[in-house]
Amino acid sequence: MRLKSYCAALLSCSLLLSCTDLDENLGSALEESTTGNINPAELLISAYTSLNGPYQHDNRWCLQELSTDAAIAPTRGGDWDDNGTHRAIHLHTWNADNSYMSNTFGGLLTAIYQSSNVLRYSPSKQQAAEARFIRALAMLDVLDLWGVVPFRESLEDFRELPKTLQPQEAIDFIISEMNAVMPDLPTSGAAYVANQNAARVLLMKVYLNKGVFLDRQNPKFDAADMSKVVALANEITGYTISAPGKYFDNFAPDNNVKSTENIFTLYNEEGVRGGGVDRAYWTVSHYNMTPGGWNGWATLSNFYDKFTANDERRGIYYNYPSDTTSNRTKNYKRQNVGFLEGQQYSWVTNKPLNARNPATQPLVFSRELTIRTSGTTLETAGIRVIKYPFDYASKGQRNNDWVVYRYSDVLLMKAEAILRGGTPGTAADALTIVNSIRTNRGAANLTALTLDNLLDERGRELYWEGWRRQDLIRFGKFMQAGQIRPADADPKTLVYAIPSQQIAVNSNLKQNPGY
């Protein structure tokens, strides 16, 4: 049964860890409230909830996906411009005032603060372990995106500015934290509660990307680190790759009970609490779809072409109870998940849909796409992506839990670590791992496994889940020319610009080189 606790002590989501005045005011308020009326369980819910802003198809997601070959937010006439914010992310022309960077940085530092705050109020061992997991997760994201981590280990003196952890310091701290809390985390249970396997996946991410974090341009993948990845993967048990036809179970409105893969998720339940998982539908869907969306984001045809026609990940009709449309109840069975390309049909009448302006134009999502669209292609340009089946049965908060870690990612990281020198395992073992996933997705077996086709397989399996940028950097391809953007001339883009307002309030933060 799902947890039914409301977050009574949710702190302001606008709080930034490195903002001195806000910290001092909050510190005073907390000091006045240490009379026993602060519940660490409620503070822990606040810490979990603080991840929703960065993660649920917003902010962090945008930085990790819109900057790659897998996603784009084109400007459509006067829509989706926002002073070029979206275009700058995809074209790698951002600066230190980009709102996505500011919001992500602030949101992740808020999560670090919220989880650290739990530790001040006598939590149980498990509560403390969960809070430290959340903190490490957010710290790893800051390290990945910006290359350094502002961190205040003690919350007792808010006049002291956070220090800036350099890559090795942050890596060492995160590894130490996860090893320390592992025994106090649950071994099983709901995926939206931090658990031992989630901590193992977090450690796998650290060891696999360690060489990148230490040298973005010329990463070295130490065999001992790769062997750590393999060993951690072997310790993660109790999960299986979704059966054929069940890939989208991992993202469905009832994925908390249906998925066989989800290791760590963010909790969403109507009438209780959650985040903006429905943005995964609104941002891509056309006004005339059911329900109408915002007609925005898309993928690139080169990325779409990485899939074969029989690969269920590319898109299928997915039958699920929360689909209350005629597409299910009248057995129309039109494709409703995956990549939407070509003529679109009403899931109410089963008739072909038209665009809105002009209303006589068929709604045909096209392969052709530019960073700015107008005229007859304004509403139709770009292949759309629906990863999370829409929860029609709910009127407010959608129930799809947001997926952070999945078992298929564990297996793909293990295969990669083996290819990069990790033991035990051979190239043949890595190929077997990858093909075990492809078989269940309806894709033909690969005959050989290389780093290049493994990167493609990670793209196919984990598209729009917030890992593409990290993967492209690790495989040395992030700076290469994209389908509609030139190659990066400056390696500064391997980390984002630290937001200007953060540097203004924390003299311990220095801008990343080149910005």
The Rg value, from CA coordinates, equals: 22 Å
Number of strands: 11
**Approximately how much beta-strand content do the residues carry?**
5-15%
The separation of the N and C termini measures 49 Å
- The low-confidence runs, each spanning 5 or more residues with pLDDT under 50, are 1-35
Strand order, biggest sheet?
A: 5-6-10
Question: In this structure, how is the largest beta sheet organized?
Answer: 3 strands, antiparallel
Please, how many helices? Answer: 19
SS-derived structural category: mainly alpha
Binned, the helix content reads 25-40%
Protein name: RagB/SusD domain protein
Keywords: Cell outer membrane, Membrane, Signal
Main location: membrane
GO cellular component, one term: cell outer membrane
Tell me what you see in this structure.
Its main location: membrane. Residues 1-23 form the signal peptide. Keywords: Cell outer membrane, Membrane, Signal. It is found in: Cell outer membrane. Residues 269-481 form the RagB/SusD domain. The chain has 515 residues and is mainly α. It is 38% helix and 6% strand. The protein contains 19 helices and eleven strands. The protein has helices spanning 20-31, 40-49, 52-55, 60-65, 85-91, 99-118, 125-146, 167-181, 196-214, 223-235, 255-258, 279-282, 301-304, 326-329, 407-419, 427-441, 451-462, 468-474, 500-505, and strands at 75-76, 149-151, 163-165, 262-266, 315-316, 337-340, 342-343, 364-365, 372-373, 384-386, 402-406. The strands form five sheets. The protein has a three-stranded antiparallel beta sheet with strand order 5-6-10, with no helix packed on it. The longest helix has 22 residues, at 125-146. The radius of gyration is 22 Å and the shape is globular. The chain starts with 19 loop residues before the first helix and ends in a 10-residue tail after the last helix. The model is unreliable at 1-35 (pLDDT under 50).
